């Protein structure tokens, strides 16, 4: 496939020193331990393919000030387990110690540098050319022959480690990055897809709905989860006090107006639930939307909606799912989420994105029957909405520069 960015096939790596930006950002439990290392696991093929090179990895974990903002020491152990060879963790990013560890690597060595967000300039959003002038890029770039970006999950960020090396080093996409771009490009081009949006982030889902319908990326959007409540309210249903309170407490009331505008403009393309499942003192009970309002929390889509949506999804040529259909942590209210995902296995081409949905896919053991399970959360949402992705754009610009220089790689 012709690509407008370089991939690993465009380089030879034997004996080269490679700076690899990976996506290892993982959920961290109360005990401070990684609870799901899917992203680390998915990064392994790229690192395996670099077995004759000297590889130093840059990655992030959490955001400053948050509980999951930790060192990458345990990430190195997880990676080592999957790679079956030593991964040396260095507790700094570009200190003298880090640079001398990089300079003394032998082919086959792998070093994981410290959480790149410990560096205060990392998260400033700037252009690649501006980022290329930072201390980190100036200190690290001279030590490397090639920069590979495999961190699809952070590709919606124009952060230093994501775009700053591309103007100064021959740069390309790692295997995971290329795989994500291929699958999500297929989902967003060559004919519209059925989108199934859910989850608690009502603002994101309303924005995606508008964007994919305006751009013709989606033929229909089936709404579930909290976003369905905003659309039901926009369609004139009184969803009841506890459900309005959720929207109000999370500052989503304005989304009802946005949803109303979408319903007006794209009548018939947004498919609303015909019934909901309410949590009646711990018990699941279906309620036809004509029976609204309810004094109980809407916690899932109802059985008639499950049947209707499963039918649409299962018969679709292309389906994209992002976000659970209900409160999926509670077994009573994950029926909708599980049914949507199982139906997606019958579609000709299916993509699942977002942390909770991908977790549900793993738990159901159906990952091999979904065409692509994305490692991206916000990145997958942005890509699927047709937004430009700064880190991918930076790789494209880097390919242009390499061709102009006709530099041997
Ligand atoms: C993610 O988990 O979505 C990525 O690692 C990006 O993290 P961020 O939203 O903190 O930039």
Structural class: alpha/beta
State the name of the first-level CATH class of the largest domain. Alpha Beta
Count of runs of 4 or more consecutive helical residues: 16
Helix content: 25-40%
The kinds of small molecule bound in this structure are: 3-phosphoglyceric acid
Strand content is 15-25%
Shape: elongated
Number of domains: 2
Query: What is the straight-line distance between the termini?
Result: 20 Å
The beta-strand count equals: 15
Radius of gyration: 23 Å
Biggest sheet: strand arrangement: 3-4-2-1-5-6
- Major β-sheet annotation: 6 strands, parallel
Overall mean pLDDT:
95
pLDDT < 50 runs, ≥5 residues: none
**CATH level-two architecture of the largest domain:** 3-Layer(aba) Sandwich
CATH homologous superfamily heading of the largest domain: Phosphoglycerate kinase, N-terminal domain
Q: The CATH topology of the largest domain is what? A: Rossmann fold
Summarize the structure.
The chain has helices at 38-48, 73-83, 96-103, 128-131, 135-140, 160-163, 175-188, 202-214, 225-234, 241-249, 253-265, 303-314, 335-344, 355-364, 378-384, 390-405, and strands at 17-21, 54-58, 87-89, 110-112, 146-149, 171-173, 193-197, 218-223, 270-271, 275-280, 283-288, 297-301, 318-322, 349-353, 372-373.
Blueprint of the fold:
Layout lengths: L16 E5 L16 H11 L5 E5 L14 H11 L3 E3 L6 H8 L6 E3 L15 H4 L3 H6 L5 E4 L10 H4 L7 E3 L1 H14 L4 E5 L4 H13 L3 E6 L1 H10 L6 H9 L3 H13 L4 E2 L3 E6 L2 E6 L8 E5 L1 H12 L3 E5 L12 H10 L4 E5 L1 H10 L7 E2 L4 H7 L5 H16 L4
Parallel strand pairs: 1-2, 1-5, 2-4, 3-4, 5-6, 7-8, 7-13, 8-9, 13-14, 14-15
Antiparallel strand pairs: 10-11, 10-12
This protein binds 3-phosphoglyceric acid.
């Amino acid at each position: 496939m012709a690509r407008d960015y370089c991939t690993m096939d465009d380089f030879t790596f034997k004996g080269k020193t490679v700076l690899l930006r990976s996506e290892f950002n993982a959920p961290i439990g109360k005990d401070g331990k990684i609870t799901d290392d899917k992203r680390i696991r998915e990064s392994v093929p790229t690192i395996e393919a670099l077995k004759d090179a000297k590889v130093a990895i840059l990655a992030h974990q959490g955001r400053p000030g948050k509980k999951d903002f930790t060192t990458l020491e345990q990430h190195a152990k997880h990676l080592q387990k999957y790679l079956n060879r030593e991964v040396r963790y260095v507790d700094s990013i570009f200190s003298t110690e880090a640079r001398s560890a990089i300079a003394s690597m032998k082919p086959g060595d792998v070093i994981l540098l410290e959480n790149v967000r410990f560096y205060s300039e990392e998260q400033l959003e700037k252009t690649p050319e501006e980022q290329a002038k930072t201390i980190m890029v100036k200190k690290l770039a001279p030590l490397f022959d090639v920069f590979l970006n495999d961190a699809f999950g952070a590709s919606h960020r124009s952060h230093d480690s994501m775009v700053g090396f591309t103007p100064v080093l021959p740069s390309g996409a790692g295997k995971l990055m290329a795989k994500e771009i291929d699958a999500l490009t297929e989902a967003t081009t060559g004919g519209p897809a059925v989108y199934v949006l859910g989850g608690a982030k009502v603002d994101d889902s309303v924005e995606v709905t508008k964007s994919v319908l305006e751009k013709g990326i989606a033929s229909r959007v089936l709404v579930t989860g909290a976003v369905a409540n905003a659309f039901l309210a926009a369609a004139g249903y009184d969803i009841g006090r506890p459900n309005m309170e959720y929207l109000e407490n999370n500052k989503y009331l304005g989304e009802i107006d946005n949803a109303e505008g979408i319903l007006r403009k794209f009548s018939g393309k947004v498919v609303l639930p015909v019934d909901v499942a309410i949590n009646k003192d711990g018990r699941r009970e279906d309620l036809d939307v004509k029976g609204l309002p309810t004094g109980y929390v809407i916690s899932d889509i109802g059985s008639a909606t499950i049947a209707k949506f499963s039918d649409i999804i299962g018969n679709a040529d292309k389906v994209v799912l992002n976000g659970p259909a209900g409160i999926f942590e509670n077994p009573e209210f994950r029926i909708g989420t599980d049914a949507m995902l199982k139906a997606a296995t019958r579609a000709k081409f299916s993509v699942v994105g977002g942390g909770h949905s991908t977790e549900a896919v793993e738990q159901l053991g159906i990952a091999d029957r979904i065409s692509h399970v994305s490692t991206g959360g916000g990145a997958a949402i942005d890509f699927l909405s047709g937004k430009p992705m700064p880190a991918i754009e930076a790789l494209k610009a880097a390919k242009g520069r390499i061709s102009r220089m006709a530099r041997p790689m």
